[in-house]
């Protein structure tokens, strides 16, 4: 049990309106109201997007049916990078403003982020074998995403490596902020170096890089996976808050029994 002053019961104020969400009771009430609709929206969106991507979207004239891997690979890549940016924001909130829920959310976020990054690498390898003739190359984009995967794993391991929960959260936050320098490398590696990986096609402004028949189901898949990502992280954070509160009650009950014991 974390017995440091930085507990959920007595959270120091954060700037602006963030201090409202440092209250565990308010957080639990909010997630109790929004978690189920979020999960239902994720399931419905993913179901419709999967049908759209697998059965209605046309095959690519060069890649054929292999292009359908993109409908999982690209959302996983975006979630891996966007999730890590969220981890960095939580780390700033933890280190500067001592936001207690930021520690719990970051702790629950890193395993989910590692999972989506692993899916990004796996689906990229599945696509690379028929397109490049190999499962893996030490390409700048692939290597930087692999580094991102190890950063996710490192954070997940580091925050759980200390008996002192606050110290583990602090070390994990420092690692997360150091790892932010890898995000521009992942994003711009295809522009900075001559790589096998194709350049950005969705966000190109000069000319459309993807037909709308593929772009729209891709965006639908991204929304569905994003909603599912958020639902999983919120559910994990909610469970962590409840576990922390139960432990606090158990410790308080134990202390009372010791106080009245003859």
Bin the helical content.
Answer: over 70%
- Report the β-strand fraction as a percent range: under 5%
- Count structural domains: 1
- Large-scale geometry: globular
Largest sheet: none
| Radius of gyration computed on alpha carbons | 22 Å
Q: Termini, distance in Å?
A: 26 Å
Instruction: Please provide the count of β strands.
Output: 0
The SSE string, one letter per element, is HHHHHHH
Regions with little confidence, pLDDT below 50 for 5+ residues: 1-15
Number of helices: 7
Structural class, by secondary structure, is mainly alpha
- Residue-averaged pLDDT, rounded? 85
Domain Cytochrome c assembly protein: 41-197
Subcellular location: Cell inner membrane; Membrane
Membrane topology: Multi-pass membrane protein
Family: Belongs to the CcmC/CycZ/HelC family.
